[in-house]
Amino acid sequence: MKGHIQKRGKKSWRLKFDLPPDVTTRMRRTRYLTVQGTKKDAETKLAEVLTAVNQKTFVNASRTTFGEFANQWLETSAAANVSPKTLERYGDLLRKQLLPTFEFIRIQDISGQDIELLYVQLGKTGRHDGKGGLSPRTVRHVHVLLGQIMRSAVRKSLISVNPMSMVENAPKFEEKEIEVLDEQQLNTLLRSLKGTMLYMPSLLAASTGMRRGEVLALRWRDIDFGTLKLTVAQSIEETRAGLRFKEPKTKSGRRQIALPESVVRALAEHKRDQAERRIALGLGRDENGLVFTTFDGRPRVPRNFTREFTKAVAATELPQITFHGLRHTHITHLLKAGVPVKVVSERAGHANISITLQTYAHVMPGMQEDAAALIEQSLKAAFED
What we know:
Blueprint: E1 3-9, E2 12-19, E3 29-36, H1 39-54, H2 66-81, H3 84-102, H4 112-125, H5 136-155, H6 183-193, H7 199-208, H8 212-216, E4 223-224, E5 229-232, E6 235-239, E7 242-246, E8 255-258, H9 261-280, H10 302-314, H11 323-336, H12 341-348, H13 353-359, H14 364-384
Helix pairs in contact: 2-3, 3-5, 6-7, 7-9, 7-11, 12-13
């Protein structure tokens, strides 16, 4: 790294030097410092600065507070890279959990110990309704968000060392065991929903593994009745601004799923019923072309849909499965049936196979025994000889 010295006054010098390019934008980052004294003083300071830059320990002398930087990060970096729904969640965590403690503290002054004390406090008295602490899962979400903000501060040269690296007791939580239905329970649930507006969305989720947002955003043009396939092209999410359709987050999220013939027949019947209902209600052409709508043709609100589904399941004696549990049920049944993990992963829209393996590792032990039984059968003749 090189720098330059420019005289500005009788005993004033301006130092000009570059930092390494930003890791995300790869753009050049030029910095300036003013030094009072002789030219030799300026040369000495420039040498110190360049050494710090090369050793990656240089930070701008700044009075920037955590609140100033975090709000700026939320409005720029986060807003450009996450969905509006995620941005809302980040904003809530920042305002409710991080700013009350760190807002007016210089970001350079926050230590790993400060962060650990925050986690302890949130776990004891973090709820804003005064009813105790936050769940370990929520504290973990705070930890992840704070990590993103601090990594950005390092990239902006506001801090030289990320205090998150000094946190010895990062919050952890145990994932709840995934609730799934066996085949008999699934059939019982679907029979109980037949005749309601929950039946077809549930049937589709259970037979494809689609997520709630993907099911409710499905359009008739996405279904090919000839090839018995559908395309997952978008999802619906609910924000404070209203409902929003969005494309899948990853390339693997946009996918084709082969459908059972019985499900295709049910979809065709549902399409006829939907068209007849629109005519009976005097509704015009459906501009959205959605497969699943309210009775009067509007898009289904995800939160209301979940509430209806939960209430319907509660009326049965079945395990109290969530709608997302139908996705888990579908994937679990495929794995137990011996469908290759790669096929299951593609059908689920996972970014890679490792996600499928990690999420459904509990299904694998039984598959190991099944594999051993198949090998035993294939080697039976050799042992007899």
